Amino acid sequence: MASFLQIDSLTKSFGDLVLLDKISFGIAEGERIGLIAPNGSGKTTLLNIIAGKEGQDSGAVVFRRDLRVAYLEQNPQYPTEITVLEACFHSDSETVNVIAEYEHAMESGDHSNLEDILSRMDHLKAWDYEQKAKQILSELKIRDFEQKISELSGGQLKRVALANVLISEPELLILDEPTNHLDLEMTEWLEGYLNRSRLSLLMVTHDRYFLDRVCNEIIEIDRKQIYTYRGNYTYYLEKREERLLSQNAEVDRASNLLRKELEWMRRQPKARGTKSKSRIDAFYKLEEKANQGRVEGDVKLSVKASYIGNKIFEVEHLYKSFGDLKIVADFNYIFSRYEKMGIVGNNGTGKSTFIKLLLGEVPADKGTVDVGETVRFGYYSQDGLQFDEQMKVIDVVRNVAEVIDLGDGNTLSASQLLQHFLFAPETQYNYVYKLSGGEKRRLYLCTVLMRNPNFLVLDEPTNDLDIVTLNVLEEYLTNFRGCVMVVSHDRYFMDKVVDHLMVFEGNAKLKDFPGNYSDYREWKEIKEWEEKTLRQTQSQKEEIKKPIVATKPVEPKRKLTFNEKREFDEIEKLLPKLETEKASLENELNRGNLPTEELITKSKRISEIISLVDDKTMRWLELSEWM
Description:
By secondary structure, the chain is of the alpha/beta class. Helices cover about 45% and strands about 20% of the residues. The protein has helices at about 45-50, 85, 95-110, 115-125, 130-140, 155-165, 185-195, 210-215, 235-265, 275-290, 350-360, 395-400, 415-420, 425-430, 435-450, 465-480, 490-495, 515-545, 560-590, 595-625, and strands spanning about 5-15, 15-30, 30-35, 60-65, 70, 170-175, 200-205, 215-220, 225-230, 315-320, 325-335, 340-345, 365-370, 375-380, 405, 410-415, 455-460, 485, 500-505, 510-515.
């Protein structure tokens, strides 16, 4: 396979913080690589360096010459005054650049380089660029091409940026969280599109189903080092577990040896200068190995939920709409104790508004929401907590509480709680602005859970969280002794956490489905198949019921003349004879002992027979039509 990209000894640091330490890896044609690492490990920084948007301290990033590369940023930015279609021309791709050159040549009248421009336009198929842009935008459910960027939602903006990179038809596509802000339908569309394409990929995503179904290689950044797994996400999980067990065994061995070496070091007289230098060096290496501790940090969400009574809350005859957009209409529901509801649906169907209605943050047009006296909400908003960027991490937590009650008489200090959320002591005294997007999300989650809620309302909690944090959050929610209502486009997360779905189908149509997302997807496919079959059956019945329309009578088939009948009979007798003669000649020629003149004669004859058989067969078929 041809090499597309090679990264050698790449190092990147911010002050004393070393993110990447001499990492090396390559991407070959056809490889689809998923990049996995904890939040704050430098995933986005690495992608920005590869895309040329950020510099490295040392090392090299080398692309194959003339390689077409496209980069989907985690938070794409466009001028707010341009339209959706104009945004598709707002890139640095080769195709867009040559279109700009052509338009400039036409407007200025300078045709000195026009021949070269036209040649490149043909090569890049740039004449069809606008049509391709409209086609992909339509497939991504963006149909108002003149809509201003400033009017788009986060999900719509992500889809415009996605269309922008796909229409450039790159050979290597770099994606940073491509499924963030995409609804489930669009995520599955992108999954199918990438699987059908021949693109090579390097992507960061926390969507584990997406990783499993799209990637054929996983690269993990762990403690500034690179580990490569030649398989999908399932394979990665298996092999990573083996690696961690091996590393932990090495740490145990190093710790045991260190104890023995420590005894030897202490026995040596301090004034004695004859200690083995190699053994002393080995001691310090062992100490470094043992002090690494066991691999694998853990987010231990051990905060207990407060008591929740039998009455949770009841919704009666709830109505809400914004103009022609209906969110709910005559909605009734009674929440039960320990219920875990997942909310799914396409973007724009009102999922976040529905949550705010129930929490009283948005007033209903009509109807009541009666909340039980013991209910204590913990609301994780999609917009996130607006931190003071100049505050220290530990002060954010202390502003909520100095001491956290775990129940059963147990407590945690603010610092101890942060350590449970993978904030090391040195990180706790960092300013908030130094945290990555995922670390800020984790800190926000910490401030929500530490209030001991018994009803968790989570609006897109999985965006920007790393896979380790997601796994532990899933375990926490599974064992949570309270109610959970969660909006998420992470299919894997929903499958593990919820026991039923509230599906928003649009125009205030809600369906309560008794199962997780995979169950719902399977049911939906069966239902769509049944509906398609029913439509086909009805169509066939309608065809049968159609009145018979008089048509022009079919002319009687002509009969063979006397001479044609005799010719037909002669061909039927001749064809078997020709086949027999052909077979006989083939046997004689295959023996290889014929004299030269006879060999030439028989070769000519077999050619004549083959031609004659073809002619007579065609004539026989023609005459047989009239028999």
